[in-house]
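PROTOCOL LOG
Step 1. Enter all chains and additional molecules of the complex.
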Amino acid sequence: MDKFTTLRGIAAPLAMVNVDTDRIIPKQFLKTIKRTGLGKALFHEMRYDATGKERPEFVLNREPYRKARILIAGENFGCGSSREHAPWSLLDFGIRCVIAPSFADIFFNNCFKNGILPIVQPKALVDKLLDDAGCGANANITVDLEKQEITGPDGGRVHFDIDPFRKHCLMNGLDDIGLTLQKEAKITAFETRQRSEQPWLYR
Amino acid sequence: MAKPRTLFDKIWDSHLVDEQPDGTCIVYVDRHLTHEVTTPQAFEGLRDAHRKVRRLDATLAVADHNVPTTDRRGGIKEEGSRIQIETLTENCREFGVELFDMNDVRQGIVHVIGPEQGFTLPGATLVCGDSHTATHGAFGCYAMGIGTSDVEHVLATQTLMMKRPKNFRINVEGALPIGVTAKDLVLAIIGKIGTAGGTGHVIEYTGQAIRYLSVEGRMTVCNMSIEAGARAGLIAPDDKTFAYLEGKPKAPKGALWEQAVAYWRTLPSDAGAVYDKDVTIKASDIAPQVTWGNSPEDVLPITGCVPAPADFADEGKRQSVERALVYMGLTAGTPLTQVKIDRVFIGSCTNGRIEDLRAAATIAKGRKVAAHVSAMVVPGSGLVKVQAEEEGLDKVFLAAGFEWREPGCSMCLGMNPDQLTAGERCASTSNRNFEGRQGPGGRTHLMSPAMAAAAAIAGTLADVRDYQR
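Step 2. Run joint prediction.
Step 3. Record the structure below.
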């Protein structure tokens, strides 16, 4: 997993509530057995018409948002299916940070596993960022994870909260499995105790 | 005296392997269900890191999302689906995971077969790379959907790293009226609390209406907890739960069974246990439900009319309603019972169990599917299909003009050829009415199996109470 420290880039506005993971990447792209190459499929139904042609009105089909690194969205972003293909497609497109008033739990968790930073901000601040992002080429936003600070195009800074452990993992590109396996002795001790107390859970 | 605990608190506490001062926990996973769509990358990760599956006895695989529901003897024609299922087979062979392949009579939707096999147990933790894992909460099992990275984490460590979710109680007082089912109840709950109402919480469903539900009905309620944004749904185990599980192939037997049941009886929430959030719903207020928009919270009693954007206070919601009405091809003010349908889908992990098929067959019996409607019934598993055929339900459906298919996820998400075409409108017993969910441009209305059968007969959305005998 790539480390996340400071990200500076174009922010794309997507002012919709309840953007579900089917909308982020529809079912026909879930047949892959790889994690890569899904950027083309991101927001497929909104991005392309039935013939596969780009819809010019969709934000990611317009300059400068084709190179967006940050996405600003509405409430409950990433609801629905647990498909990790959703963060994989964002990442493959180039988006490493999503800012919204709220996220669905599974999507939020999946982001951290892939080096994507989801930031929760109050609705009024997200609305301001949506306005800022609408300014096109001037919509450069900087996200500094260490300082937990978002700098808008006008130089205005706002603080964001993040779980310290998740911050540490993102900043160092740490793999959860490796971390958990450092506690393997505890897992084994748990299993020994559980096997004697609840033997029916072992077959 | 010990602090009173909720059902969730008890399961959580008994599965805690490690807790850091910042609240990051390692939680033990007792049961892991896997399928072809969300595991290829997880097995690849294990292989690359030279890791093994930690507990083969706690892991079960099944092919469900991509399988065709027509004759399977010729294999799978569509290349992507075929490769994904072949990859699952190959991975299970390499790592030693037990697999129900698509020609095994025990094959079916992962959330139907877990309980059916007694793989799902009360007081346990269960995960699967699928958001509808919430289904298993009906047994008092803490069950949640996870992404592929976490699937790999569980395969390698038999644990998950997470923070403790909060407790949310939804108490459903009184009894459900005639014609109102578990599906109507959960749709009404989602309509009330919204699709983000349960975010960060585990919902425990309590109250008389929940106790009265069959185990199948409880699975329907818990299944759609994710549509309310919850991490999981839970219902306290009781004698119905134990009767359902006793004798199931993978459930404990003999003295172990007795020991397990004695423990499971200690699981229900203690009197005085504290919930972070509490909602009470009167069962008698609920009518048969149907969705009209592209979010499961866009739901109304079948006696209602298509709403207008102006009916909603929130600006963001108004915009999404505007978009939904265009996508759904609906005009505000139209009575829901006047909305004409093209397709009917009865099945899915929400409503593909034997009780669901019986409810639909009761309405279909002796009637005919409207001439312009194409309707299909997809059993949730091979064993559900066998049982339905023993009860003659297949004949009822076929005589009424429904198709009778092989088990799988089918048109709930259309990863196989079972899809809507653009503009087609479907009365569906599945769980999501998102844009394009059942096929690009397809229009989904969610409802109960009996309501879907009534819609098939009427050719429009219909009130099942007009069809009950």
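Step 4. Note key features.
Chain A touches chain B through 57 residues (CB under 8 Å).
Residues 6-172 of chain A form a domain with the Aconitase; domain 4 fold (CATH 3.20.19.10).
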